[in-house]
Design a protein that fits this description.
Layout lengths: L1 E4 L2 E5 L2 E5 L2 E4 L4 E4 L7 H10 L9 E3 L5 H4 L2 H7 L4 E5 L3 H4 L6 H12 L2 H15 L8 E3 L4 E2 L5 E5 L8 E5 L4 E5 L3 E3 L2 E3 L9 H13 L4 E4 L3 E4 L2
Parallel strand pairs: 5-6, 6-7, 7-8, 12-15
Antiparallel strand pairs: 1-4, 2-3, 4-5, 9-10, 10-11, 11-12, 13-14, 15-16
Bound molecules: zinc ion.
Length: 230
């Protein structure tokens, strides 16, 4: 049983950035938690190879929430590896499957109207990027509180707030939490992700506290990487 944190480096608007998708391995399953922006499939494949893993062995993908940096390459992965089963929360499913418009796109289009002229081109490019996210069918839904045997015991935690149905994972055997965007690591501290864009900020703050109360040994943040609790 292993938890492998992938470290994917990329450039956005000439700024170097990283994301940290996670792979959970046991003798039955290989599960990827979140999968990068649109076009990131080759980078994910490379990150797998660097760890001695192969994406063809993947059995499941868990999507913590429907933002483009977490599910942007989901459809491409599903097309290349159709046997992989896609899991999300019940609330996020309609957004991932394209039955409901992405919340960030709603926000970005609304914001676009208020932007000064010199920022409109950037705003427009951002909207176009969000529109390029292809929807993908979800095979299984969860709602929080479920316990699976993945990787020595995996509890689904409802951490709504950042989006309506955000989920995080608690890996019992490893005393590790995979936060998604319910907590991001900034300057050595776990904080709420982009509070100005939280779907429900109060809930997002409560979800962060909920994760802290686990007092897990390790928190793996999609943004910021590994935080050791001591
Ligand atoms: Zn994110």
């Amino acid at each position: 049983m292993r938890i492998i944190t992938l470290n994917i480096k990329f450039n956005f608007q000439n700024i170097e950035d990283y994301i940290y998708p996670v792979v959970l391995c046991d003798d039955k399953d290989m599960i990827l938690v979140d999968c990068g922006y649109v076009g990131f499939l080759p980078m994910i494949e490379n990150a797998f190879s660097a760890e001695g893993l192969e994406m063809k062995d993947l059995t499941k993908i868990i999507i913590t929430h429907h933002d483009q940096d977490h599910m942007g390459s989901l459809r491409a992965i599903k097309e290349k590896y159709p046997h992989v089963s896609i899991i999300s929360s019940r609330e996020e499913k309609p957004f991932i499957a394209g039955e409901m418009k992405a919340i960030r796109l709603e926000q970005a289009e609304k914001l676009q109207e208020t932007l000064p002229d010199e920022h409109k081109a950037f705003g427009q490019a951002f909207c176009e990027m969000l529109k390029r996210v292809e929807p993908c069918r979800v095979d299984m839904t969860v709602s929080g509180g479920e316990m699976f045997d993945w990787c020595g015991g995996c509890e689904i935690i409802d951490t709504s707030g950042h989006t309506p149905g955000h989920i995080s994972l608690y890996l019992k055997e490893h005393n590790t939490i995979i936060t998604g965007d319910a907590a991001v690591l900034e300057e050595g501290r776990l904080v709420v992700a982009n509070p100005q864009y939280a779907f429900d900020l109060k809930k997002a703050e409560e979800s962060l506290i909920k994760l802290m109360e686990y007092e897990a040994e390790t928190y793996i943040c999609y943004h910021g990487g590994i935080y050791k609790n001591r």
